[in-house]
Amino acid sequence: MNTAKAARLLLDAGASITVTDQWHRGPLDVARENAENALVGVFASWLDTQSADLKKNVEEISAAFLKEKNNKVEPNQQSKVQLQKTFLQLGGLNLKANLKKVEVKEKTMFAKAEGKVTDKKPTGKDAKSTGKILSKLVDFPGDVKEITKHLSNAEVDPAGTDAFGLTALHKFASWNKTELVDMLLPKLTREQINFQDRDGKTALHWACEMASVAVVSQLAANNFVDASIKDGKGRTPLDIVNSGEGTVIERLRKALTRAA
């Protein structure tokens, strides 16, 4: 089981996201420090469903760490094994004994694409274009003011792909950022909204894989979104959701089928 999946399962089972290590880093800070983008996405998606007090607590931990970091030597990067141990220790839970198997996979939006590569051709400029591409200009978690500026710039292509074949919509959907999705959708055509990456996945596929419940509801209610599109493995977004089990999976299923 990969670290991102384990972290999501632990959080859903009641593990704490406010624990800190010897450098006063919380789980979210550790993920960012180690460029574990899948974990960052999982934590952000989970926090979007939590209370304002918990979100504030996590923000305070990150702010305190960054302040201390600016005054001290940065800690050495943890190895993947150390990082995994950090998250498996959240709340002191026994992963094998307490967690159910879930097939929905959380994948980094910046790692090289895996699996079958499809023959789909991009509708917007590709990553080799000399033009400015929104997907190449944004970073997690997405700055609203900065993205607003990019979207108002006629020279920025909102539908183009980055070096890994991902559009900005793919990323925003994965990050569960409904506000960013709302800003971007009016700039896209039906074809661009349903654009498939190298693995044949649309933004809706990505939202389902990353358990982005809010964005799944948002996209499912959009008349331009085609939920019947299959990825390179022959799966529709609903097929991805139905491959798992648990409370989060049920929420995804309801979000995806509510507008149907």
Automatic annotation (TrEMBL):
InterPro entries xrefs: Ankyrin_rpt (IPR002110), Ankyrin_rpt-contain_sf (IPR036770)
SUPFAM superfamilies in UniProt: Ankyrin repeat
Annotated keywords: ANK repeat, Repeat
Coiled-coil residue spans: none
A Pfam family the protein falls into: Ank_2
Listed name of the protein: Uncharacterized protein
